[in-house]
Amino acid sequence: MSALAGRVVAVTGAGRGIGAATVKMMAAEGAHVVVNDIGVALDGTGGSGGPAADLVAEIIRDGGSAVADTNDISDFEGAGKLVQRAVDEFGRLDVLVNVAGILRDKMLFNMEPADWDAVVRVHMTGTFNTSAHAARHWRSRRDADANARLINFTSDSGLYGAATQPNYAAAKMGIVGFTYSCAKSLTRYGVTSNAVAPGAATRMIDSIPDEETKARLQREMRPEHVARVVTYLASDRSGWINGRVIGAQRNRVSLFSNPIEQVQLISPDGWDLDMLDRELKRGFGPVLGTEVSPS
């Protein structure tokens, strides 16, 4: 039996890149897929229903089950219409995959509020919007054995920081914290929540000036590598993992550690600045790989 036979999946940003590779793989594994994409440019401007419609036509031609959706997930009501589309077409929603995103890269001192707002609105607010509506649907089902899945997308830019992407990095780390919260709140309704940190050559590498480097990345970092991990997480076999960040690129799958407290210093009588200077350097310095002397 196919891994996703009969499961109903909605994927945002699914018209191209990782999203497209994911829905094609899921449809091939027997899922009914809702292909959400508004067809904007990489910076979020413009819009077209073409990418979603073209991909749905391809999936149906290959024997799969799919419908296109062009609701804007950065709008709360639009996100609700996406979830409702899955319910109306296929009777329920089993899996939500939040891939949609845009880029407006600039150094912090050059970034305008509009560039910040646009990226955060699509990535973080969009993830909240779709997830909130999906959560209401799952809660209404009251099925602790639903095997439902929430799969969000984070990024190395957030996990490690990216100098030219303060907006994108902030949104992607916000999604990690959001995923942790969902993992704790939705498990009672049969839902697991995880985040994927992908590495794939999509149109987001178009800005690389060196054509040889770009061609190598396209060969080595195909979106299908990420899609395979997402497809597994969408299956009913992945219920054992919840509230984690999983890396996927090339032929490598990785598990990131959740934040832990590395060092704890306690002063029974409180702290003054001299004590903090001395004890933080003594206690934190070795962990940070630095040797510093108190001032």
Which regions have little confidence, pLDDT < 50, spanning 5+ residues?
none
| Secondary-structure-derived class | alpha/beta
User: What is the straight-line distance between the termini?
Assistant: 67 Å
User: Into which percent range does the helicity of residues fall?
Assistant: 40-55%
The CATH topology label of the largest domain is: Rossmann fold
Strand arrangement in the largest pleated sheet: 3-2-1-4-5-6-7-8
CA radius of gyration: 21 Å
Strands, count? 8
Q: What string, H for helix and E for strand, traces the elements in order?
A: EHEHEHEHEHHEHHEEH
Q: Treating each run of at least 4 consecutive H or I residues as one helix, how many helices?
A: 9
SSE topology sketch:
Layout (H helix, E strand, L loop, with lengths): L7 E5 L4 H12 L3 E5 L13 H12 L3 E5 L6 H15 L4 E4 L14 H29 L6 E6 L2 H4 L6 H21 L4 E9 L11 H10 L2 H12 L10 E5 L2 E4 L17 H16 L7
Parallel strand pairs: 1-2, 1-4, 2-3, 4-5, 5-6, 6-7
Antiparallel strand pairs: 7-8
Helix pairs in contact: 1-8, 3-4, 4-6
Describe this structure in words.
44% of the residues lie in helices and 15% in strands. By secondary structure, it is an alpha/beta fold. The chain folds into 2 domains: 8-255, Rossmann fold (3-Layer(aba) Sandwich), CATH 3.40.50.720; 262-295, no CATH class. Helix 1 (17-28) links the parallel strand 1 and strand 2 (32-36). The longest helix has 29 residues, at 113-141. The mean pLDDT is 92.
